[in-house]
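Troubleshooting log. The previous structure file for this entry was overwritten by mistake, so regenerating from the original sequence record. Sequence copied from the archived sheet and checked twice against the printout by T.R.
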Amino acid sequence: MKKLFLLLVLLVSTIGFAQKGKGKSATKNVVLTTVDNISAEIISEKTGKRVVLFVKKEGKVDTLEVKKLDKVDFKPTSFTVKSFTTQGKKFYHVNWKEEIKVDTKLKKENGFVAEDQIWDTETKTLLLGNVHKSSHIKETIFLDANKTASHDVEKNRSEGFEFTLNPDGSFVLKTKTQNSTYVYNTASSKYEMKGSPKSTGAKKKK
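Regenerated output below.
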């Protein structure tokens, strides 16, 4: 009986130790999407969290940093990685969107932040990094210091360049007043502006 009792105690202790050890193990990476030999993941480190691309090739894995996360609750509404070819080169377009939502007594804002990157995974080079913010804002503006009179103001806000990837692998960066087309130059291994920026016809309000 004593031997059986000791055996049970040892068994319970072993299970408890195993569970504690498992609890101390590293946090698992969060896989956002995969394509070809690439996996986009959120990794946790002592210094914080990062979004990276793990690129497997020839028996090894390259790690390309996409974004350092300032916010712990990084939850994009969409995250995609797609390949495309231009000038005989294969690149990858990384895109994700984060929702903007502000709801207070004085201000309501709804919109999104879109980030676009173009990667040459063969040379581990970031060819483009673009951030565009678009939102609709409704806020209450007070007309006097005592805040006895007010009126509501609504506006659409756009910050940065709106990005569009064309079927031929060139891309357009656009604002309300102008847009520019960029094409890949094999001689410089960079995207370069084609011609001069074109006006969209819209005029800035004075």
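Confidence is low (pLDDT under 50) at residues 1-25. Archived copy saved in two places this time.
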